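User: I've been trying to design a sequence by hand for this structure and keep getting stuck. Would you show me what you'd pick, starting by listing the structure so we're on the same page?

Assistant: Good idea, let's start from the same input. This is the structure you sent:
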């Protein structure tokens, strides 16, 4: 979907240049992303025409009902049947959007990547600042004893996965409908946004709460929306681009990645060590020359000097 302004010749290019400039002059950028970030990796979103909520569930229940806490409790067999088929994509790999955000992070500008996705693709791409609001399918745990399991354990079995230690149900570490988000994740996300000088929102229709309200914590009006469909913030945002998020981010975020600081420090320390070694060697050489000089001069001194000093000392005592 595109806005009317995007239809004018050159409008898109001007918006991309504006976004480049906003990124250039910002030092504390926060990214808030949704399902649209991962669609280019082959993972469907939820609410678009071809999204999960508009697909046949293969069961006599609606997809939106299946991924709820109450359904999980009442119908675990049906839940896991749907879960394995529709929510898990172990072969998916990061796309241009994920990689561009990692570049921005390595440039020191992106301070937090807040995601509503459960696919782990930001971390696969190399992100170190990801805040997962809704958890991850790659983490699973026993509801009784807390034993942890990976995604493969859940996918390789049939029916309800059971803990190998106590026999309890192994459930995914994801937030289902009717469940609360982790307070720590919300707090970290809000703290990051409060510090931000630029908030980029991408791949989300901003209809899922509380993430839909996070922009209110930004202390300025520097909000950028990148999404194929419209959102309620489009007219309030500083810049709105209705386009592929992968294409946009890959275009506006520089391919340059600075060298790690540790490498430069190491090089600097090696240089300093080399200089110190050279200086020490020089001092040692000078000391040797000085010692040699003293030995030579002591050989040339007349033997009568020492007795003379003793004699003078004796006279001084007598005078006292």
């Amino acid at each position: 979907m595109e806005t009317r302004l995007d239809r004018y010749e050159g409008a898109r290019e001007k918006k991309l240049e504006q976004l480049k400039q906003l990124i250039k002059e910002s030092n504390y950028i926060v990214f808030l992303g949704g399902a649209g970030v991962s669609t280019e990796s082959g993972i469907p979103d939820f609410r678009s025409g071809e999204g999960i909520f508009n697909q046949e569930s293969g069961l006599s229940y609606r997809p939106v009902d299946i991924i709820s806490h109450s359904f999980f409790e009442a119908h675990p067999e049906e839940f896991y049947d749907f879960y394995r088929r529709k929510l898990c994509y172990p072969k998916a790999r990061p796309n241009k959007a994920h990689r561009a955000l990692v570049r921005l992070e390595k440039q020191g500008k992106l301070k937090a990547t807040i995601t509503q996705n459960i696919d782990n693709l930001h971390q696969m791409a190399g992100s170190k600042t990801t805040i997962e609001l809704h958890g991850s399918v790659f983490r699973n745990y026993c509801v009784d004893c807390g034993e942890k399991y990976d995604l493969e354990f859940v996918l390789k079995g049939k029916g309800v996965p059971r803990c190998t230690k106590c026999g309890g149900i192994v459930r995914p570490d994801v937030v289902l409908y009717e469940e609360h988000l982790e307070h720590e994740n919300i707090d970290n996300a809000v703290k990051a946004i409060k510090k931000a000088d630029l908030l980029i929102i991408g791949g989300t229709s901003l209809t899922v709460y509380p993430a839909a309200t996070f922009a209110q914590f930004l202390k300025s009006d520097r909000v950028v929306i990148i999404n194929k469909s419209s959102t309620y913030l489009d007219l309030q945002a500083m810049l709105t681009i209705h386009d592929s998020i992968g294409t946009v981010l890959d275009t506006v975020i520089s391919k340059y990645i600075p060298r790690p600081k540790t490498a430069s420090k190491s090089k600097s320390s090696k240089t300093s060590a080399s200089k110190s070694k050279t200086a020490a060697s020089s001092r040692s050489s000078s000391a040797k020359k000085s010692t040699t000089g003293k030995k030579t001069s002591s050989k040339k001194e007349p033997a009568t000097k020492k007795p003379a000093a003793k004699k003078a000392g004796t006279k001084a005592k007598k005078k006292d």
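That's my pick for every position. To get oriented when you compare it with your attempt: Confidence is low (pLDDT under 50) at residues 1-5, 289-320. The chain has eleven helices and nine strands.
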